[in-house]
User: Fold this.
Amino acid sequence: METRKMTQEEVNAWNKLYEKDLPIIGDFLAYVSKTRKSKYRLYFEDGSIVLATLFSMADSDNDLEMDDPFYEEFFEFYFKIEKIIKIGSKFNFGENENIALNYHNFFYKFEPFDEECD
Assistant:
């Protein structure tokens, strides 16, 4: 499948739509877009550290009706947790579980991880 490069107008529209997301997810999105790596060590604010595989990313929303005043759209990354290194105070995922991360629950630091997860 061939991917098409976005026009400048499309890029501007995308940036406007996700202007609240980009300060939080922008560095990771740029890294993924440039490198196409899939395995990462993710560090969360609560102290959790996991090894995870990125398998998809997409536009999403918070499952409310569009006319609800709290409806919002955001960009999400979908990971499979391969290994839990450290469980933090708010950690509620398990190994081999798929998780969706967006600007509400994003990690604060990431490192590419090229070894197999044991």
Notes: The CA atoms of residues 35 and 112 lie 10 Å apart. The chain has a mean pLDDT of 87.
